[in-house]
Amino acid sequence: MDIDSACIIDFWSLCARLASLAISHTKVAQLPDKSMTFERLQKLELSLRSSPPSIQQLDWIIQCPNLTFLDWECGRESMSQSMDALATHLSQGSLPRLCGLRSKFFRPSDEQLERILDGMRQVESLDIPRCEFGPLSMTALRSKFPVLKKLTVEAKSSMETSVVPEILASCPQLEQFTMHRVMSRDILLGKPWVCHSMTKLHLDIIIPSGQGRNRHQQHVLERISHLSSLETLTLEHKTRNGNDTHLQLQLGNGLEHLATLKKLRILVLLYFTQEFTTAEVQWMISNWTKLRRIQGSMSRENNRELVKMLRAAGIAYSFPISMPNGGIAWTSLKDPSPSS
């Protein structure tokens, strides 16, 4: 629904009374007068269509002095300029309570991310999937480790994946962590993880094939086993070269380590197929007594039989379908084909 000029004043007057506000895929006739303040507003999700310009949107954001969380999607063509302006405002103390930032499409440079992090007095939540930490921004992030609770990172080179073990070994308050590429050797060489309050973990773990694979696999699963508060575990493996392989949850290959995950409710497998047998599924049913859903391809051979076991135990199952845009959708047909 678009907000036209006939009701725009009443709309902004109502918004000024709210503590949480989401304006998504909407067009507003105009932004509020600069004399207005939104002192009650603490959480803002903003995604306006076409207008007003993002710089004007930022002028309004600054009128929310008690904002603690900002999810902002502005035009991609002006995103970098807008984030530079946001960093400047943060450095000037305009949003002193802001401790959470999300931006789906922004791909900040190392310097831009450093400025944003330095401008935030505390960082509890940082969800910028396209960010790539470099030396400047990583130094800025380290000062926020003691209070960091949620972090989403996308790394593009093997050098960057080495930050993952450091984060997991240095952030005791971390509850949700997404990393779209991490080498098992970095986990192998890293210090013990301290994020024992972790409830959601999403990792794309790259394991070298050949000699040493089982050692890497066992070590990674042993590290995950210490996250006893884990409720959602997502394992991903996008297309790699022939020397890479993915984490296999198999008995005799390290799955037994995960018996400690007594709170696990959701297991998600993305972009690859596991090789579960009835033994693995029965083990999960017996050991993960709070498990409520599995998403992903469990087996190339006997997926249908495994699904029947899950449903008999009251565990929902859904499998992925590739979409034309490159994404995936989940379906839970009653009788998926064996190759699902």
3D architecture notes:
The chain is an alpha/beta fold and 340 residues long. Helix content is 28%, strand content 22%. The chain is built from eleven helices and 14 strands. It has helices at 8-15, 54-61, 79-91, 110-119, 135-142, 158-161, 163-168, 184-189, 213-224, 278-287, 303-312, and strands spanning 20-26, 43-48, 69-72, 100-102, 125-127, 150-153, 176-183, 200-208, 232-236, 244-245, 266-273, 293-297, 316-322, 328-331. Strands 1, 2, 3, 4, 5, 6, 7, 8, 9, 10, 11, 12, 13 and 14 form a 14-stranded mixed β-sheet that branches. Strand 2 (43-48), helix 2 and strand 3 form a beta-alpha-beta unit. Helix 4 packs parallel to helix 5 and helix 10 (278-287) runs parallel beside helix 11 (303-312). The radius of gyration is 23 Å and the shape is globular. Mean pLDDT is 87; it is low at 334-340.
> Helical amount among residues, as a percent range?
25-40%
Largest sheet: 14 strands, mixed
Mean pLDDT: 87
Overall shape? globular
Spatial extent as radius of gyration: 23 Å
Proportion in β-strands: 15-25%
Q: Work out the helix count.
A: 11
How many strand units?
A: 14
The low-confidence runs, each spanning 5 or more residues with pLDDT under 50, are 334-340
Q: What would you call the structural class?
A: alpha/beta
Written as H for each helix and E for each strand, in order along the chain, the element string is HEEHEHEHEHEHHEHEHEEEHEHEE
* Alpha carbon gap, first and last residue: 39 Å
